[in-house]
Fold this sequence. Notes:
Layout: H1 28-45, H2 61-74, H3 78-83, H4 92-105, H5 113-119, H6 128-141, H7 149-155
Amino acid sequence: VYxxxxxxxxxxxxxxxxxxxxxxxxxxxxxxxxxxxIFDYLKGLGIIPDQLHDLxxxxxxxxxxxxxxxxxxxxxxxxxxxxxxxxxxxSVRKNMIPVLGYLEKIGIARxxxxxxxxxxxxxxxxxxxxxxxxxxxFLRGLDVEKDDIGYVLQKYPELLGFxxxxx
Length: 167
């Protein structure tokens, strides 16, 4: 992997100066070693990684640790993660934060977000624009008041799994 040239004055570690191909070119052997290390880390926490074999995972334990710790700060336990380990395939910055921010924006209180994810963890895989916003628009078209959207979705979170809804 080529990371570009750096002047001697700015000798930053490679991971701070990623190229366009960062994370794209990784040999099969390195990926396997990385997965074994990550799976060992998860097992050490009590998380069973059996369902994660076909999932694209981060290349470092640090990124996986960030995901686990983020979920734990939400209030999820190791048992909650084991009930739906696929949530570990979600990026904190690209998936979790945008989805949780949107849920909070539509009326689910921050202290209740962990419970919401516990009840409907698939929401972390959703796209706000493609999947979540159309459901909210659909509910508004059914005369659900804007202030009641959060309540309705907390009561029936599986509504967020419906796609192709339109007004």
